[in-house]
Amino acid sequence: MARTDDEAQASRYFERVISERQVVICVGSGGVGKTTSSAVIGLNAALSGRRVLVMTIDPARRLANSLGIEALGSEMQQIPLERFEELGLEPKGELWAMMLDMKDSFDRLVQRHAPDPKTRDAILDNRFYHYFSTSLAGTQEYAASERLHELVQSGEFDLIVLDTPPTTHALDFLEAPERLVDAVSSRALQWLYKPGVLSGRSGMGIVSLGTNYVMRTLGKFTGGELLSELGVFLKTFSSLFEGFEERARGVIDLLKSSRTGFVVVTAPDSLTVEEALYFYEKLDRDALHVDAFIVNRVHPRWVSEEALALPPEALAAALSEPPLPALDPALNPTDLAEHLLENASQFELRATQDASSIALMGDRLPKTMPILKVPYFNRDIHSLAGLNKARTALFGYF
Ligand SMILES: Nc1ncnc2c1ncn2[C@@H]1O[C@H](COP(=O)(O)OP(=O)(O)OP(=O)(O)O)[C@@H](O)[C@H]1O
Ligand SMILES: [Mg+2]
């Protein structure tokens, strides 16, 4: 895809902004290329000398494949130097990757903040804890964002690139700290103590699935068992509550500070662009820093108007003189040429549509917002070589 001066300038500007961030978060609708973009941004920063961690919460575990490592677990792994050497790349920094397992993150939180091992085990074994850590909306996202905070504070990495989950509610992840502050505030305890909760009559409060669900989940136990388990849960878990609010504020501060930048990833079609603009408005309203838009899978314009205007007979003659060995001799060359021209003009149409929806998107964004394009490659990106190709397109290195 030919790059204009504007595009090259946008890439440089984006690269400079990223070089000043400690955290970059890729957001966007499902399937647009968030995981790929996170890896590409991480790769570029590692090549330029930073120690980078790419954190994904992608359940499809695609990141591991594209980075050329066997599997990705909740422990971070460095991408071996040989992988880069195979491609003739010499990273000046380091590239690490890990998968953020939500349940695991929440357990770690308990392990870290429980006052003693006895309390820790009592919480981890408690059925109410299991309910809270797996079913309460926002708790797992919260645990994930706290893990991010922990890693940033550890100073182990110069840059952490965070991938977000494939949901239409990707922004939940960002709202999780605030939601959890709410959830663990005294209202939560009030809700649990509320008359009628244990008999299943109250259905409001912070438990978004409703009391009936809680009661159904826990209802296999007798009232006595339930009460004593709840008692243990409240006594032990509340010992963690105190620090929660303060740490959640820490996460919110990190996300809002100039240490963190957001990248909105989108496909070029007008519907997805609308969703991307919605993400942008929301981030902007919350005073979060949006560093760039990445438009992924853009149809490149590669057929000239002269070629499209060719009479099928002329193309047929070119195809059969000398005959292409791969072509079936039974095929009528003119029919084939007609199909090829039709195909090329459809492709050209897609390229035109993409260009116009990207232009309309640009009109609705601040003039200074970098809009970066990655072409539609003819195959999935599932190797470091593929990521490097996307990097070349995104950052304009040829
Ligand atoms: N420019 C591209 N050209 C061709 N294939 C691409 C391109 N970008 C991404 N892909 C492929 O599209 C698929 C989806 O990309 P990716 O996993 O990055 O999207 P995602 O936004 O993270 O998806 P999800 O919302 O499911 O997490 C992957 O198989 C990836 O290899
Ligand atoms: Mg993903």
TrEMBL record:
One of its GO terms (molecular function) is ATP binding. InterPro entries: ArsA/GET3_ATPase-like (IPR025723), ATPase_ArsA/GET3 (IPR016300), P-loop_NTPase (IPR027417). It holds the Pfam family ArsA_ATPase. Gene3D superfamilies: P-loop containing nucleotide triphosphate hydrolases. Residues 22-304 form the ArsA/GET3 Anion-transporting ATPase-like domain. This is ArsA family ATPase. It comes from Lujinxingia vulgaris.
